[in-house]
Amino acid sequence: MIAKVLTDISLDREFDYLIPAGGDYRVGSAVKVPFGRSVRSGYIVSICKNSSYDHAKLREISGIDTSRAAIPENLIALGKWISEYYCASQEHAMRTLLPAAVRSGKLKERTCKLYSAADRSAAEKYIIEHSRDARLAKRIKVLQLVMRKGEAVKAEYSGDIDFSAGAFDALVKEGLISCREQPLNSDMLAGVEPVPDAPLKPTVDQQKALTMVDDMLAGTASSHVLLLYGTTNSGKTEVYLQAIAKTIALGKSAIVLVPEISLTPQTVRRFRARFGNNLSVLHSRLTDRERFDEWNRINAGKVQIAIGARSALFAPFRDLGLIVVDEEHDSSYKQSESPRYLARDVAVMRGKLDNASVILGSATPSAESLYNAAAGKFLLCRMAAQVADKPAPLIRIIDRRLDPPPEPGVSNLLSPFLINAVHERIERAEQTILFLNRRGYARALCCPQCGYEARCPECSVNYNYTYSRSREVLSCHLCGNIIPAPANCPQCGSPEIRYLGSGTEKLESIVHGIFPDARIGRMDSDLMRSSTDYEVVLDKFSRGKLDILVGTQMIAKGLHFPGVTLVGVINADQGLSMPDFRAQERTFQMLTQVAGRAGRGERRGEVIFQTSKDSEVLQFASTLDFDGFAKFDAEFREMLNYPPYSRLIAIIFKGENEKTVADYAAAFAAELEVYKHDRIRITPPAPAPIEKIRNQYRYLMTVRGNGLKTIREAIRILALHRIPPAGVSVAVDVDAQDLM
Ligand code: ADP
Ligand code: ZN
Ligand code: ZN
Predict the structure, then answer these.
(1) Cβ distance 38 to 46 under 8 Å?
(2) Same domain as 414, residue 379
């Protein structure tokens, strides 16, 4: 017999080997094979009788690679599909089927660094001795802060207004702050035993959905995919829970995909309460060892349910009955590296290959899923009623153009109306969320004297810097490059440089100024660089220890805080001006999601969208009219023949030499001409909206239309098997989710 083997080099090519007698060689086995003069690792991807090569010249597999796990056979077919459809090399596609820790068998432990005052009396002495030294003022503030807060991870301190990273590091160097490393406990529910709970009696809507699930599980439905389009609080999660219970009763297993950001202890607790230890939680904070253990638990059939982000889709169940994709519209389901797959679509494909049912759930389904439902490709269940029949939050649009002009020197980031609303909440001991989808303190630095504008020299797009005051740095939001923030204009030396725009850090300090007695927390990716911090702040907020939570989109999704009765969105129209056909959809989803954070408890919620633009998207969002929005957005997409009315493939060419990149892109495009037909439109390569990142020029071309299979195959071959000039790389993004 012949085994076709993919080695660990990305050649997008299978090699034929003879299977030695004896030994358990199957599709998916990890093997060692002779390769040239060396021995390489690989996976068997198929077994057949004949090879098109001369049998006499074929070499034998050296043996099973016992250091690595085998890929379950049913996943191999999925890997092949991913490789074909997403134009990725077969090796890349197979790699994504296994977590790195399982693939390599190498297990690193994770630790975190805890800081505290080294010696309190030394610290006090230092503070007293240097209290008059203005140069040490920052250090003293930081030291006082550390003494006050006690042992904590760095990010917990750095949220403070008086924090200075430089001073912190200096104090660590001087030995006044000590650091202790400890292994990270990643169990999200450590110390909390969820109370077991029983299924709730389904509502009429839920029953309708569950009947459809029964039909799907029995194989009598017209599709294996159900789009569960249900308003927030309509009881979708309860449907998932009961659908999973039905699946398990049939002796099958289930996968639940959630966006990483909503994989919170709250979500996990609900599943744990229903299914106890029959549940494997695959979140990004697992240590390699834990991930390895969980994977093996699933692989050995010890659990029947896995919940996790994108990659949980590849959980090695062999008897899969159901895949649930919650928040199916969420953009985090797209992987940005090769293979650039969209987990929602791969879930539909895995369901097909594994003969499993799929539930796609959302309060704001993607245009693609609505289209498939309307075309009869998916079953559709609409759940319009809220279980508790809660009144929807009261949403107001505050047009900032109508506000009185601000007093000089006073920030007008918050409208008087919003300030007043926050005041009321504080008085009533209720909580507020203030949402601004931009981290940092300010977003640009410019000089009014000479017109200088700071921008990362390695990236294009004006104002790519974000200024962080607590860290005194400018960081580029495209490449992550960090430089110290200048105190004077680097061009003319003027001290009057200004920071324009605002981020969450500035919002926090402004809110602090307006409400000095309020307890304020902040959540954004600047602060939350280690994920434990995220839980610390969330935990404080959910226990009512904070009055106001300021944050970016990190706080928009999935969180359930019954104490929150007010949500303020600072720049609601932000994002609408992005040059991307999904800008409207993203903005609508983002607004309705943050709005959904208000009024989850007893009291009715109030939401304030601040804006300085007229926009239909805001109008639809303010009445939570998703149907209206979907129709409006669909008309626009249909007119311009954008997905879902067509398919779209984006091809990005990158390299340091702009001319080489442009020339290669043009040559690549020319080769595709022969595959064009009247339903395909090709936008020729041109500089991408973001023209340059980290000194790499970027050219974008798109192929859009229907009947793309042949051209996609041609693109795949060109991108994977044609060697570009030195320094140029090509990335293909099938069903690209953004065109930047
Ligand atoms: P969604 O996922 O659509 O936002 P959930 O499933 O979280 O909705 O349900 C919202 C709330 O209603 C939850 O507190 C849940 O416990 C409750 N709930 C859901 N279904 C029922 C039911 N059939 N009977 C009573 N309460 C329910
Ligand atoms: Zn200047
Ligand atoms: Zn940059």
Answers:
(1) no
(2) no
Q: Which of 635, 666, 696 is the last residue of a domain?
A: 635
Do 131 and 252 belong to one domain? no
Q: Give the integer Cα–Cα distance in Å for 558 and 521.
A: 18
Domain match, 259 and 363 both: yes
Q: Counting ligands in written order, which one lies closest to the CA of residue 446?
A: 2
Of 207, 227, 228, 233, best ligand 1 pocket probe by most atoms within 8 Å of the beta carbon: 233
Of the listed ligands, the closest to the CA of 454 is 2
Identify whether residues 554 and 694 lie together within a single domain.
Answer: no
Calculate how far, in angstroms, residue 475's C-alpha sits from the geometric centre of ligand 3. 8
Confirm or reject: Cβ of 117 under 6 Å from ligand 1: no
Ligand 2 center–CA 692 separation, angstroms: 25
Structure confidence by residue, pLDDT tens digits, 210-237: 999 999 999 999 999 999 999 878 899 9
Taking the CA of 478 as reference, the closest ligand is 3
CA of 238 to the centre of ligand 1 (A): 6
Residues with CB under 5 A from ligand 2 (ion): 447, 449-450, 452, 489, 491-492, 494
pLDDT at 259 over 70: yes
Whole-prediction pTM: 0.82
Q: Do residues 631 and 666 share a domain?
A: no
Residues 560 and 669 in one domain: no
Q: Are residues 422 and 517 in the same domain?
A: yes
Specify if 475 maps to a domain: no
Q: What is the pLDDT of residues 52-110, one digit of tens each?
A: 888 888 999 999 988 778 888 889 999 999 999 999 999 999 989 988 877 776 666 66
CATH code at position 622: 3.40.50.300
Q: How far is CA 153 from CA 114, 128, 136, in A?
A: 5, 26, 23
Q: What is the pLDDT of residues 279-319, one digit of tens each?
A: 999 987 787 888 888 988 998 899 999 999 999 999 999 99
Is residue 440 over pLDDT 70?
no
CATH number, domain at 6?
3.40.1440.60
Residue nearest (by alpha carbon) to ligand 1 atom 18: 235
Q: Which residue has the higher pLDDT, 192 or 549?
A: 549
The number of the ligand nearest the C-alpha atom of 445 reads 2
Structural domain span for residue 356 = 204-389
Q: Judge if the beta carbon of residue 384 lies within 6 A of ligand 1.
A: no
Please name which of 236, 529, 503 lies closest in space to residue 363, comparing C-alpha atoms.
236
Closest CA to 33 of 8, 13, 67: 8
Q: Which atom of ligand 1 is nearest to the CA of 230?
A: 3
CATH code of the domain in which 667 resides:
3.30.70.600
Residue 492 lies in a domain: no
- Structural domain count of the chain: 5
pLDDT-based confidence at residue 202 (cuts at 50, 70, 90): very high
> Is 497 domain-assigned?
no
Nearest to 356, CA basis, from 385, 327, 382, 317: 317
CB of 553 closer than 6 angstroms to any ligand 1 atom = no
Is residue 185 over pLDDT 60?
no
- Both 131 and 250 in a single domain? no
Q: Is 702 in the pocket of ligand 1 (CB under 6 A)?
A: no
Atom of ligand 1 minimally distant from the CA of 383: 3
When the pLDDT of each residue in the chain is averaged and rounded to a whole number, the result is 88
- Rounded distance, CA 364 to CA 626, Å? 7
> 426 exposed, middle or buried (CB, 10 Å; 0-12, 13-18, 19+)?
middle
Residue 594 within any structural domain of the chain:
yes
In this structure, the residue with its CA closest to atom 9 of ligand 1 is: 235
* 723: confidence class by pLDDT, cuts 50, 70, 90: very high
Q: CB of 237 closer than 6 A to ligand 1?
A: yes
What ligand 1 atom has the least distance to the C-alpha of 388? 12
* Those residues with Cβ within 8 angstroms of residue 104's Cβ, 6 or more apart along the chain or in another chain: 68
**Ligand 1 mean position to 240 CA, how many Å?**
11
Q: Which of 71, 98, 125 is the last residue of a domain?
A: 98
By alpha-carbon position, which residue is closest to atom 11 of ligand 1?
Answer: 233
- Produce one character per residue of 604-643: b if its CB has 16 or more CB atoms within 10 Å, e if not: ebbbbbbbeeebebbebbbebebeebbebbbeebeeeebb
Token pair belonging to 61: 């597999």
Q: Which two tokens stand for residue 488?
A: 């004077």
